[in-house]
């Protein structure tokens, strides 16, 4: 009965691993003290800064969860990966690249500084606010609702459910979006927006307010890790080339002006949001994690206490721990 013994062995390993993930979450929570919840969008300040949850999903449906993995939160900047995918699918990569570059900035995510000095009006990349606002303007449809639908459609294709907008967060952001409005007016003036400032910004603030859990992020990360192949549906849901570019953008720009250090010490494509979410894609490299085997997997994290760059402090710490335990860098 080698088969049964093997099963018992792997069940024991999974139990042990799940205990370790619990321990690491517990340890990482301490780091939440060094950050704080975003306040520039007032509704985000209401989150519990000591929440920390993680969900890891493997290609055969294996799952590991720990901490507050099931607490809903808004996607914020993580939605920029999906609006980029949706814009590229409808316009083609070359067309999108006419309006937004693919270069990291080293500046804050909402910086306005180099919009004027570098190819005036052309944002450096679709992961900073200026680039994401531009990308959202490129989505098909004439109003904010239609543009948002393009993003929700992509998410529905992955998750098999229609995600909803957190109206409180949306209104809170909409009322306090002066800096994003300034970026959008500048972009419009220079001819980079493809729809009006009002409808573009409404769609942008709504996409940032899409509500998810860490499990949703893990599944999206898993599909991206598979270059758009959905392992549960057993079919390609997005073009491979678009997914590869999206992951390159996540690696070089996804954690903003700490993307270099994130690549050095964690080394996987990831995208953060100011609500404290992080979505990461871990490609298959043949190294086994006890809980997920050797395949690729997606990771979703929620930890709303963020650092000065806009990244979850405890979340980054937890990922660093996992990356060193399981050597999951792409390098
Ligand atoms: O536009 C904003 O400022 C927010 N809705 C999103 C920014 C964000 O998530 C940056 N991420 N770390």
Keywords for this entry:
alpha+beta; 5-stranded antiparallel sheet; 13 helices; binds 6-diazenyl-5-OXO-L-norleucine
Describe, in plain words, how this protein is organized in 3D:
The structure is a single chain. The protein has 331 residues and is of the alpha+beta class. It is 48% helix and 10% strand. It is built from 13 helices and nine strands. The chain has helices spanning 2-29, 79-91, 93-99, 113-117, 129-137, 144-159, 167-175, 178-189, 197-208, 214-225, 240-253, 259-265, 313-326; strands at 53-58, 63-67, 73-74, 211-212, 229-230, 235-236, 270-272, 277-282, 297-302. A five-stranded antiparallel beta sheet has the order 2-1-9-8-7. Strands 3-4 form a two-stranded antiparallel ribbon. Strands 5-6 form a two-stranded antiparallel ribbon. A hairpin with a 4-residue loop joins strand 7 and strand 8. Helix 2 (79-91) packs antiparallel against helix 11 (240-253) and helix 5 (129-137) crosses helix 8. The relative contact order is 0.19. The model has no long low-confidence stretch (mean pLDDT 92). It binds 6-diazenyl-5-OXO-L-norleucine.
Topology:
Blueprint lengths: L1 H28 L23 E6 L4 E5 L5 E2 L4 H13 L1 H7 L13 H5 L11 H9 L6 H16 L7 H9 L2 H12 L7 H12 L2 E2 L1 H12 L3 E2 L4 E2 L3 H14 L5 H7 L4 E3 L4 E6 L14 E6 L10 H14 L5
Antiparallel strand pairs: 1-2, 1-9, 3-4, 5-6, 7-8, 8-9
Helix pairs in contact: 1-13, 2-3, 2-6, 2-11, 5-8, 5-9, 6-9, 7-9, 11-12
The structure holds 6-diazenyl-5-OXO-L-norleucine.
The site of 6-diazenyl-5-OXO-L-norleucine has 12 residues, from loops.
